[in-house]
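[step 3/7] inverse_fold.run input=structure_tokens len=686
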């Protein structure tokens, strides 16, 4: 109690009119809180922030007092994100920016930089300083330029000031607009030469900032890739640093390289990236003292959507190394004195990186399965951390893209039941990832489809259709699409009944979310694909007029291309299965015109879909004279003349198709379908 009273007196002493007493109190508080989380918490409870902020805001506060107060701010900021946010809310930012202006005392400038660096170590605080960002960038670049030109350049203090300024610049680059603001101020030309100075801490800081500056920014990556220094381009400099003896320099150089590689601006250096950056990161995975989290994340980022680098990573042993890391983390569960929170972050990154590496290539997936990845994935789906569950689902989604793996290894992995359970998880991210993985387990070739149906997957999926999440609904509808392919009639009708034609048509309307709409139309397409059960169900539910209205809306020129493709095949299925339903299509001149207009689409998938529709409409024949007009109106096997050629000819389709054949640039798949359609017009040409 006496100790608490003493600390409270130090805080009260900050309001003294005697500068000596204020300085003494600040120094005592500073010495107490540095390195002590308990004392920092104590002084937060004693409301020290307003007092320190007030001292920094006053014009007549002397330099030595400012140094002590600023040091306290920096120390308190290390307490955590909440502490840093309280300091910003307390108004310290304006004072810190003023204290790094040109002409400021060197020591005060340095401690102010340290305080800024600590305050901006958290996402929330980085985003909260927008009004000071421009002033900060200007001051920081001034510090770097001044220190570079200083006669004391080789002193440690000069390097420390530059290093801090560079680090803070990187922390400001949290949005695209901030990236451009920093880059447009001349940062790239100022920083790139620092990479060749040979001071490791400064090189690491510079690499970190250049990485933040170029992250997911195509324009800045292009600018960075073409910057020369001492006869070398930036990429050559960084690739050289990727071979540096210092592991931290190697790591951050590889992160920089991955930014350029992912934005496809590396040009002819792609082979060098595979031969240098990938092996460098693999060696770092086995290097003690280097953050395995950062290395694993860098590997995932480098391999993203690049099949060649994924193969290079597999050949370098990344898959087995990542699974070894996952196995090590799993073996540490329940052990005391282990940083389990850090292990969770590494495991999540490991599953995401593994998923990235196996996303494109069969060879990589086979290696992952050979390394027992499915076993670890199944167990990870039961982990207490939702992030690991979601990451494991995503990795599973990519591995089971392989038909051979899905047929052979997946059934014995025990992965279906955990996925079905996670599809109903309380966390949306987990649900989305789980249902995305289920999509690839439900096609007709998958042995798990029968088991999934026995586990009442349709009821589970239908229960998720009312979600407000577009991505979850999209995944659910895609699962249903896959279930409807090559399924027995009773199961098909059961699925149709549970999902509901009315619901599918409602979410296929123009005002529906495009992501959901595409899959809903895909479900309707698959409902009608194998026989006329689905077509009859749609017409019975909506009526012919509403069906035609729906189809016409789906073929609106503003409709997204994938949805138009599904719509055309839905139309084709309706037209080919039932002459009675086809009659409704032909009677609608706007709908017939919409189909004909897409025959000449520059998108081959759209053109082929439209040509299939024309083909199916032309297939129906009028009753022959020999049948006496008593033929089955729903049959297309009568020997009479084509029933709807006259309506198609009115659209000028024969001339259109003949003109398409004369186009030497027409792709072969479209050309073949055009020839088939033209065969139906032969009677008109006679």
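[step 3/7] decode complete -> sequence:
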């Amino acid at each position: 109690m006496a100790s608490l009273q003493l600390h409270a007196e130090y805080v009260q002493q900050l309001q003294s009119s005697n500068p000596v007493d204020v300085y003494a109190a600040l120094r005592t508080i500073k010495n107490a809180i540095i390195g002590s989380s308990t004392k920092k918490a104590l002084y937060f409870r004693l409301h020290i922030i307003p007092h320190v902020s007030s001292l920094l805001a006053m014009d007549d506060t002397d330099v030595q007092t400012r140094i002590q107060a600023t040091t306290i701010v920096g120390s308190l900021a290390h307490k955590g994100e909440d502490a840093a946010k309280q300091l910003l809310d307390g108004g310290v930012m304006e004072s810190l920016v003023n204290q790094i202006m040109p002409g400021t005392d060197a020591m005060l400038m340095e401690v102010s930089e340290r305080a800024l660096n600590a305050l901006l170590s958290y996402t929330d605080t980085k985003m909260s300083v927008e009004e000071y960002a421009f002033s900060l960038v200007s001051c920081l670049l001034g510090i770097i330029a001044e220190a570079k030109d200083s006669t004391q350049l080789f002193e440690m203090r000069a390097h420390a000031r530059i290093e801090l300024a560079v680090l803070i610049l990187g922390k400001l680059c949290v949005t695209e607009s901030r990236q451009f603001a920093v880059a447009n101020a001349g940062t790239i030309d100022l920083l790139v030469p620092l990479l060749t100075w040979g001071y490791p801490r400064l090189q690491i800081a510079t690499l970190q900032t250049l990485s933040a500056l170029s992250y997911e920014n195509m324009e800045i990556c292009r600018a960075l890739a073409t910057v020369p220094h001492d006869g070398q381009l930036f990429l050559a400099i960084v690739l050289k640093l990727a071979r540096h003896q210092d592991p931290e320099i190697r790591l951050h150089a590889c992160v920089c390289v991955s930014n350029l590689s992912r934005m496809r601006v590396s040009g002819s250096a792609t082979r060098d990236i595979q031969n240098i950056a990938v092996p460098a990161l693999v060696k770092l995975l086995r290097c003690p003292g280097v953050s395995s989290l950062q290395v694993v994340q860098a590997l995932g980022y480098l391999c993203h959507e690049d099949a060649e680098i994924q193969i290079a990573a597999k050949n370098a042993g990344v898959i087995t190394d990542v699974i070894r890391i996952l196995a090590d983390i799993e073996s540490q569960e329940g052990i005391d004195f282990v940083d389990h929170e850090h292990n969770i972050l590494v495991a999540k990154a490991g599953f995401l990186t593994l998923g990235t590496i196996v996303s494109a290539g069969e060879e990589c997936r086979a290696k992952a399965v050979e390394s027992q990845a499915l076993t670890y994935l199944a167990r990870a789906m039961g982990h207490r951390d939702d992030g690991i569950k979601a990451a494991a689902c995503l990795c599973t989604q990519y591995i089971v893209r392989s038909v051979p793996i899905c047929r052979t290894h997946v059934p014995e992995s025990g992965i279906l039941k955990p996925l079905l359970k996670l599809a109903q998880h309380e966390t949306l991210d987990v649900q989305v990832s789980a249902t995305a993985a289920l999509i690839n387990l439900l096609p007709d070739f998958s042995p798990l489809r029968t088991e999934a149906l026995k586990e009442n997957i349709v009821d589970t999926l239908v229960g998720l259709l009312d979600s407000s999440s577009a991505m979850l609904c999209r995944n659910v509808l895609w699962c249903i699409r896959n279930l409807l392919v090559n399924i027995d009639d009773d199961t098909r009708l059961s699925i149709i009944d549970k999902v509901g034609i009315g619901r599918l048509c409602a979410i296929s309307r123009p005002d529906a979310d495009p992501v959901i709409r595409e899959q809903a139309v895909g479900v309707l397409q698959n409902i009608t694909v194998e026989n006329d059960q689905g077509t009859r169900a749609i017409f019975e539910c909506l009526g012919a007029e509403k069906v035609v209205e729906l189809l016409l809306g789906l073929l609106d020129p503003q409709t997204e291309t994938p949805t138009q493709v599904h719509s055309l095949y839905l139309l084709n299925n309706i037209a080919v299965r039932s002459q009675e339903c086809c009659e409704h299509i032909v009677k609608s001149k706007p709908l017939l015109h919409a189909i004909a207009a897409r025959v000449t689409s520059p998108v081959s998938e759209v053109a082929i879909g439209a040509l299939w529709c024309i083909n199916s409409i032309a297939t129906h024949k009028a009753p022959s004279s020999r049948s006496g007009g008593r033929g089955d109106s729903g049959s297309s096997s009568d020997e009479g003349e084509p029933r709807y050629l006259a309506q198609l000819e009115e659209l000028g389709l024969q001339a259109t198709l003949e003109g398409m054949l004369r186009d030497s640039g027409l792709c072969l798949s479209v050309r073949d379908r055009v020839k088939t359609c033209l065969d139906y017009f032969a009677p008109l040409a006679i």
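[step 4/7] annotate
Confidence is low (pLDDT under 50) at residues 629-638.
The domain at 291-467 is CATH 1.25.10.10 (Leucine-rich Repeat Variant).
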